[in-house]
Specification:
Layout (H helix, E strand, L loop, with lengths): L1 H21 L8 H7 L9 H7 L5 H21 L2 H4 L5 H17 L1 E21 L2 E18 L2 E4 L6 E12 L8 E7 L2
Antiparallel strand pairs: 1-2, 2-3, 2-4, 4-5
Length: about 190
């Protein structure tokens, strides 16, 4: 009788442990709670789904425009051309760039871009949030960027190029006929 009770407890313990392990995702959250947490904006995966929100969307045209914008924004950022950036950036990002420019001027810092070559561009992710389509775009480029204080090199090497990988998020209002996508965030690709 004692052995039966002991075996019952062992079986209950093993079943509970199996449920605990099998009922979890690799991140350690249970699949039930993960389902409740997954109320994220829908991920759009095809061009036809993007066209539901932006009827005139053309992927090739978008990627060509994003590549041009990437180069234009990088060069305007380096030279401090805030006026060139204004129409291309969402307001919050524009204000951060403007603040960075003002801080650079106060510190007597300047950037120098001695070499720039675009390597590749592709759409990494698409979603809809707050009536805007957001496209995360991966850029790979080769650059030689240096930071100077006055005429003294502070960071970088104008003779050496680096391969840089970035992810930029472009935003476009749903159903808008405006062809301009605005940059709303940037991060280094991981």
């Amino acid at each position: 009788m004692i052995v039966d009770v002991f075996l019952l407890f062992v079986i209950i313990f093993v079943v509970y442990q199996l449920y605990s392990v099998l009922g979890q995702s690799p991140s350690g959250t249970t699949t039930q709670s993960k389902t409740r947490q997954d109320k994220k904006p829908p991920i759009i995966t095809t061009t036809s789904q993007i066209r539901q929100h932006i009827p005139l969307f053309n992927e090739a045209s978008f990627l060509a425009g994003a590549t041009n914008a990437f180069e234009h924004i990088v060069k305007a950022f380096v030279t401090g051309d805030i006026d060139a950036l204004a129409p291309l950036l969402e307001k919050d990002l524009f204000l951060r760039y403007k603040k960075d420019f003002e801080e650079r001027i106060a510190r007597n810092h300047t950037y120098s871009l001695t070499f720039f070559r675009h390597i590749t561009t592709n759409i990494k992710n698409v979603s809809v949030q707050k009536k805007h389509v957001l496209l995360t775009v991966y850029f790979k480029s080769e650059q030689s960027l240096s930071l100077y204080k006055g005429k003294t090199l502070v960071e970088g090497d104008p003779e050496r190029t680096e391969i840089l990988e970035d992810c930029w998020v472009f935003s476009h209002p749903c159903r808008s006929s405006d062809s301009l996508w605005r940059l709303c965030s940037t991060t280094a690709h991981e």
